[in-house]
Amino acid sequence: MAPVTNSASIATSSSKRRKYLEAGKTVESEDRISYLPPEVLCRILSLLPTKYAVGTSVLSTRWKYLWVSVSSYDFDDELLFLPAKHSGEDKCHFLNFVDRVLILQKAPSVKKFRLKCSQEYDTSRINMWISFAIMHDVEELDIRVFMKDSLALPRSFFDCKTLVVLKLSSNLNIGSSLPICFPNLKTLDLCSLDCLDDSLMKKIIAGCPILEELRIKRSALDKIQNLCVQSSSLRRLMLYCCIACPKDHKYSVVIESPCLQFLDLGDYISEDFNVNELSQLSEARLSVAQIYKQSIPSDDYGENLIGNLLCKISNVRRLKLSHHINKSVACALEAGSCLCTYPNLTCLEVELEGSWQFVFDLLESSPNLEVLVCTKVRRCTQIGKGPQVPHCCIWKPPDSIPSCISSRLGKIQLAGFDGCQVEMRLVQYILKSAKFLQELKITSHKLDLKLQSSILKELLLFPRGSVSCQIEFS
Predict the structure, then answer these.
(1) What are 156-168's pLDDT values in tens digits?
(2) E-state strands within 242-378
(3) pTM
(4) What is the structure's pLDDT at 292?
């Protein structure tokens, strides 16, 4: 018997399917963004470089003049130049573009003004744009000028009362003759400014009474010798003095900021660090060494300078040490020095160039450590179970198990693992001793698959003090 077909049911089903497909097409083709409120659209445009924000004017009638109500501007002349072609016509086009945007703008105030100039321009024109932003109560000002002649900032800049974020970079001239007053400034970023010297730095910081974040990246041509940071309101400090400098000068760093919570210090030139007690410091990142100047013996540098600096930050909860500073401290430890105790430290990141011994010295000084991240930056000279232990990989078991390993440590990451005899013994020791270890993640250098497989098999056979420990090897 032939099957009975319900024609009405089929017709209903086809009609529903057709309506569903038509509805799907409508949803896909509908321009939902254009129906958002104007303030939302302006917020979206404010996140784009101004060139692209203006470019949306061709989308539709509604978008044609929407960009003139945007309160954030991001001008970058490299976005308007053709690749490898910086002609006078391009420069003129950039100047006219900025002028036109600022003339047509309708926003009552400027939220953010960013200007990046990689070519030579009339400085009076640039100052006119900066003055425009200041007159419109700019809150965030970011000026990056890469020109042969330095740009002297306009007088109105030095007492701008609305600035909250200020970023200055490259060839700018902050005159020392004018008073500086930024009463609402909270974030200050000074990058590669040749005009800076000791007195000007003090003057700038003193003119920011509620400053919370300071970032200084020094220029090889600046005049700073004694970098002094004195601020009772400062919460975050980033200092980068990783530059070559005249060897006949003596450089130092002074930090007097009792409310500091975060410190990132990279310094390869200073011979003295005068740091007050940082009782509120919770995170520190240090990369300090004598790279460009070897004026202090390694033992003294490690013990007196680096050792004292590490003691000043003993309250931190998170600590990251580069392989540069580790070499200096290792020299001091070998000479008989001792590390201070870090009672609050829960996360430690260490870069290694050679000995693993320094890591265990830190573990013994960190009774409450929970997370350990080690990155080896140089490969072993011999891989596998050779008869000789490579010199760049040194470790011997401590006389007693560090308390953090047996009672606290829950997560370990080892990067740059080579699987040499020393490293395998070290991992075996940790797995056996760590009673609360939950995760051991090991990332190797580029090893062949056969060696990787052999190392993994051996790792899985090691006895574990924690039955819940998971091993990940890649």
Answers:
(1) 999 999 999 999 9
(2) 252-256, 262-267, 272-275, 283-288, 318-321, 347-352, 371-376
(3) 0.85
(4) 60
pLDDT average, residue stretch 439-452 = 82
Reduce the DSSP state of residue 369 to 3 states and report it: coil
Contact yes or no for 222/248 (Cβ under 8 A): no
Mean pLDDT, the chain, whole residue set: 83
Determine the Cα–Cα distance for residues 67 and 45; give it in Å rounded to an integer.
Answer: 7
- Confidence (pLDDT) at 74: 95
Check the CA dihedral 152-238-138-107 and report its sign.
positive
Helix, coil or strand: residue 319: strand
Which tokens go with 37?
Answer: 């409120």
Cβ(466)–Cβ(436) under 8 Å? yes
CA distances from 104 to 99, 101, 283, 425 (A): 9, 5, 46, 70
DSSP class of residue 17?
H
Gap between the Cα atoms of 322 and 348, Å rounded: 11
> CA 199 → CA 182, 257, 338, 371, 468, distances in Å?
17, 18, 37, 42, 58
Per-residue pLDDT tens digits for 376-414: 877 665 544 444 444 457 778 888 899 999 999 999 999
Instruction: Say if residues 202 and 228 touch (Cβ distance below 8 Å).
Output: yes
| Residue of 111, 44, 109 whose CA lies nearest to 73 | 111
